[in-house]
Design goal:
The chain is α+β, with helices and mostly antiparallel strands. It has 1 helix and 5 strands; from the N terminus they run E-E-H-E-E-E. Strand 1 and strand 2 form a beta hairpin.
Length: about 80
């Protein structure tokens, strides 16, 4: 899916860096983006934190802990013809 990420030269872009702990205990780091706004990247961190939230087995309510965490990185892109 195409998205507009700022076509100006030296555009600032953002990516979400997500660290997940899988059910077998393995830890993986994934990168999502680039995004044209910091808010879009932050939304992906929030999504994964909520999606992988640890829930109380009796009430199915979130415990406040998650198997995912993350942060946003910012970068500058120099566009060249491919």
């Amino acid at each position: 899916m195409a998205r507009s990420i700022g076509m100006a030269a030296d555009a600032t872009v953002f990516r979400a860096v997500i660290t997940k702990q899988l059910h077998d205990g393995t830890t993986v780091t994934e990168y999502e983006g680039p995004y044209g706004s910091i808010g879009a990247a932050r939304a992906r961190v929030s999504f994964w934190t909520n999606y992988m939230a640890i829930r109380n087995e009796e009430t199915d309510e979130p415990t406040g802990e998650s198997r995912a965490s993350g942060y946003v990185e910012q970068g500058s892109v120099a566009w060249t013809r491919a």
